[in-house]
């Protein structure tokens, strides 16, 4: 063994022995202090607890209150405040704008369809006279492309409108909540979205007769012989999707339904209905298509769009 190797071995033995002696002396000293109650055990525990929490907070995933939870709390507080009427008027105005845009879309598509039908009928009538099958097929392809372009243009316009309304509505609600918390009285803020609509757009006209045949009966029952309990019950025979249809936003029945929904949102009293269908979500068919049409007519700023929800359902169904 060389001199260098022997020196390294002796140094390693010395370091190991002295390290062992150091720990033994330190532990013996600490044990004696513990026996003589010279150590603040509670202080050591609190210090370790603090160090553990700091370490966990540093490396653990940060989970704070989400924007959806903040908005839910703000909306629930505002609908139970004097701002309720203003909120309903704003939502009603947003719904009118969407319904007017949908009406313009349907009229535009209807005019295009009528024009294309007349062109196709004329081509078919003149078949083998001044037109050929190739020309008819080419016209059909052009008409299909025109329909797709018009539908895409209106779809983009509606998506942009809904996203803008959703952002404006949420920002306005948060500003209104701050005003409500800082003042004892709450009036319509100067930045209310109602300022962009005419006064006529938020006024309620005379009641409109409800369409569709329905049978209903309301009655009260009393249960219990001594401590009586009273229950009000209404039985209705109707098309379930009529509950989801929005014919006119100015209808007092629609205003009442919007009021009830606003008061029940983000609470334990939210009611709903289940629509059963045999078609998969990716290829919707009645009654899903009717439900989608009703959802398009309603201004909804609380949940994801129907398309997004159906897409999520389809993806979950494919999961193992």
Automatic annotation (TrEMBL):
| Name recorded for this polypeptide | SFRICE_035868
- A cellular component annotation (GO) from this entry: cytoplasm
Q: Name one Pfam family in it.
A: Fy-3
């Amino acid at each position: 063994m060389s001199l260098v190797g022997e020196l390294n071995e002796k140094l390693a033995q010395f370091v190991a022995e002295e390290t062992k002696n150091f720990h033994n002396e330190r532990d013996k000293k600490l044990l004696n202090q513990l026996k003589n109650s010279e150590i603040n055990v509670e202080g050591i525990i609190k210090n370790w607890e603090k160090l553990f929490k700091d370490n966990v907070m540093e490396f653990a995933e940060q989970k704070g209150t989400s924007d959806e939870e903040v908005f839910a709390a703000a909306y629930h507080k505002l609908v139970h405040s004097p701002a309720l009427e203003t909120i309903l008027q704003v939502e009603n105005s947003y719904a009118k704008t969407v319904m007017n845009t949908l009406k313009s879309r349907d009229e535009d598509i209807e005019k295009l369809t009528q024009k294309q039908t007349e062109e196709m009928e004329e081509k078919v009538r003149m078949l083998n006279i001044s037109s050929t099958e190739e020309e008819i097929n080419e016209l059909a392809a052009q008409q299909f492309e025109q329909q797709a372009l018009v539908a895409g243009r209106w779809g983009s316009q509606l998506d942009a409108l809904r996203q803008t309304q959703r952002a404006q509505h949420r920002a306005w609600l948060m500003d209104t909540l701050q005003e409500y918390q800082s003042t004892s009285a709450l009036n319509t803020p100067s930045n209310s979205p109602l300022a962009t609509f005419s006064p006529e757009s938020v006024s309620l006209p005379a009641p409109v007769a409800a369409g569709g045949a329905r049978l209903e009966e309301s009655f009260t029952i009393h249960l219990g012989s001594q401590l009586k309990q009273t229950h009000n019950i209404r039985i209705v025979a109707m098309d379930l999707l009529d509950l989801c249809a929005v014919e006119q936003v100015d209808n007092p029945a629609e205003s009442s339904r919007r009021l009830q929904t606003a008061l029940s949102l983000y609470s334990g009293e939210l009611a709903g209905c289940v629509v059963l269908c045999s078609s998969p979500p990716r290829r919707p068919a009645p009654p899903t298509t009717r439900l989608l049409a009703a959802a398009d007519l309603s201004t909804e700023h609380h949940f994801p769009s129907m398309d997004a929800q159906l897409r999520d359902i389809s993806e979950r169904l494919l999961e193992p």
